[in-house]
Amino acid sequence: MDKPVGRARVSLQATKGPPAPVPVRTLPPPLVPVEQENPLDRVVHASIAEFAGGFSPMALALAGSDWALHLAASPGRQAALALSALARQASPLQPTHGSARAKPDQRQGRAEDRRFRAEEWRQWPFSFYADSFLAVESWWDEATSKVHGASPHHLALMNFVGRQALDTMAPSNFLMTNPIALKETIREGGVNLVRGAINYANDYGRQLRGERSEAESAFKPGETVAVTKGVVVKRTSLAEIIQYSPTTASVRSEPVVITPAWIMKYYILDLRPENSLIRHLVDSGFTVFCISWRNPTSEDRDVGFDDYRREGVAAAIAAALDITGAARVHLVGYCIGGTLAAITAAAMARDNDDRIRSLTLFAAQTDFEEAGELKLFIDDSQLALLEDVMWRQGTLESKQMAGTFDLMRSNDLIWSRMIERYLMGEPERIDDLSAWSSDATRMPFKMHSEYLRKLFLDNDLAEGRFRLEGRLIALRDIRAPIFVVGAERDHVAPWRSVFKIHFLTDTDVTFALVNGGHNRGIVAPPGEGERYFRIATTSAKDPRPDPEGWALRRTLARGPGGRRGSSGSPTIRAASSRRRSSAPPAPAFRRSAQPRANTSRQSERRVFS
Known about the structure:
Layout lengths: L38 H13 L5 H16 L2 H16 L13 H9 L13 H18 L8 H16 L11 H10 L2 H19 L4 H4 L13 E5 L3 E6 L11 E4 L17 H7 L4 E6 L11 H20 L4 E6 L1 H15 L5 E7 L17 H14 L1 E2 L1 H11 L1 H14 L8 H6 L5 E2 H13 L9 E2 L2 E2 L9 E6 L7 H4 L2 H4 L4 E6 L5 H4 L9 E6 L8 H6 L15 H9 L33
Parallel strand pairs: 3-4, 3-5, 5-6, 6-11, 11-12
Antiparallel strand pairs: 1-2, 2-4, 7-8, 9-10, 12-13
Helix pairs in contact: 1-13, 2-6, 3-5, 5-6, 8-15, 11-12, 11-17, 13-17, 14-15
């Protein structure tokens, strides 16, 4: 019998020193930076994106195949959906002949959808049209949910696209199936349709010329909106810093610095005197400094996200302290401006810079994991095409960005407007907030790419990977108290996402939950309509609450005169509770010694003193 072959033995004692590190196989980066992409590919991708209205057909194909393949492999789910479709189809066919015999779920469905709330929709056959349409929408919601194995992102995208297609076929969009439009047409003998045709021709012509409507143009900064007196005290390559002096005899010792979003114009917080936060602050004794961002051009393609911090927020803080002689400021940020304000506060805390007394955030997210419907448009495929579009243009045009927001609320911003303008022949109804939203700006290529990838897609800020000047920042370093406002119907910054700042910081957080949306919920004045809010403070030592439990334990606060208040109430109360000093009046308006920016790089807004 052969002897076993001897195996070599390794003596552990012979090994001296620490073991060598295990080599790690490095993989090439999964994404090719747009600067290194093949130029021909960039052109093709940008053309595809423009042809598809900004959507990525590849992302939609991936979502569709994911949903279809997993559903095809789930016969039980298919059977359940088929039975559900039959039941939903049969329900509207049951004779009701009037609203009295309609099923409770049918009446509730029409009542919850503002398109079908009018009394005319409760009469047959229009009730049948509405119930059938809502049944299809409900079935589609069911079909694009609970598909085992399919990606939640793909299911949400399929649901959104299907909903958009269904909305185009809503019975409220057509004359013969819309009882209100039909009744008006009969009453006026078709004159409303003539007016609607004229409205359409005028709107189409203005769209081709790239002009705002006459109603929107009636709101002019310095004349009908943004009338609080201010003066530019500092200019940088990206911003103008406007100073507003207090109107009171005694002056608060620490100024307020406001960082608005650069997606829109600065005067969102200074529309009219009755809904102007800036006016309220100066009437309460504060010296206010507000950033007005310059509208970038293709020449600014390489302006990055951190440039907005250095040339905007940091410059405004320095100007406010230099002019007032104060040691600290109250920093306020709105939307993406609030995200930038939080990042600035974290960077200053990292560097032991304590010049921020308090931080206030309006509808601003710091954790983007659940950032609402905007996440539907943000994945690697979508961003790759968008970056190629911005690379070719140098910026993201305002109309391209506005189209995305319009789709997110298509019933309110597209179809309801078309019904009123073209079926009913109504004149355009524009208020100050609607006019402001049409006064949009552009986004530089580099900044917008960094913002979408680092924050929305990768969530670097919340997950501890966000760097400024090569060093990590952490929101937990912030020690200044934070006041945060979220809005119940906010589709841009959902309030539960905004609420997550409780879990990212170790300081006192006062949270106010208001009714309304992303803009109107924030700027609505106290006592307007049925506005209300909930508010509570969580100290640094308290356990962090979950959002649903927090909301259930808070009672609705009422506004002046026994009426329900608005988001202005907690915002104003928080601002007014800050320290008042017996300091002399704020320094008179003075212009910075810095030379005026080059004419080609100046902001497109005017300041009226």
